[in-house]
Amino acid sequence: MESGHPEASPAAQPVNNRSSDKVMEVALYVFAVLFLIILMYPLYFIVVASFSDPSAVANGQVWFYPKGFTLDGYKELLKHENIWIGYRNTILYTVVGTAIGLIVNVSAAYALSRKDLVGRKFLSLFFIFTMFFSGGLIPTFLTVRDFHLYDTFLVMVLPFSVIVYDIIVARTFFQSSIPEDLWEAAQIDGCGNLRYFVQIVLPLSKAIIAVLGLWIAVGYWNSYFNALIYLKNPDLHPLQLILRNILITNQMQSGMGTGEAAQIALRLANLMRYSVIIVATVPIMCVYPFLQKYFNQGVMIGAVKS
Predict the structure, then answer these.
(1) Which fold has domain 74-304?
(2) What's the pTM value of the predicted model, to 2 decimals?
């Protein structure tokens, strides 16, 4: 009779593997849910706090549902008629700026991805150089003024439409995802560069176009600094700048008053801090579900190969 431990039967090993895979899968799901809660709770808290009494929020009594439910913050915010002007301007800046940004950046990325482009390496270094060194605020302001773009609609969508990071991501996508054989086949059929780019490359690049479009749109939607520097006419101000001005004005009023009036102004100012975030954030967040199916694919493909 032989000594030693009996070997495990071959049938037992797949069962153990399946059990360990199941445990790992459950652990990953639990981790993903916890990570999602950590990411989503701050936004949920802002929503709940915007409907709660400011004193309850300040005392730490608001966690999962509103305390002292109120709509005063939203009512006070929507009393300002320029809110709707800001929405109109921001939507126009976002739509027009995103269209121009996609045209400029995707076209430049495709050109830089072509191996037959003369001076391709030099042009790539020229673009990358601007990521580390810029002309500075004052020279940029003087340039905008000399081109007669100051205090115009175009200053928000034209001078800053080139985004080098987006160009690099799109160039990587074209290099790694569009086969060179397609270009050779198109040439045999008499297709030129422009027609090949419009009719073949762009339809195959929906994922990266959606990703870049989302990035550019979010950038325009959240932008207020350029408007603060280059726009003087209040009728051209975007939503973010108008909300910033409203919030600063209410905070100043709450600090200047005395007695009961100051307390009311302070309460409204605290309420509006959360209402402003909701008013400014919710519209652009509604765009994400429509682009989600392209988002992961575009980011991953554009990040695989440099």
Answers:
(1) MetI-like fold (1.10.3720)
(2) 0.79
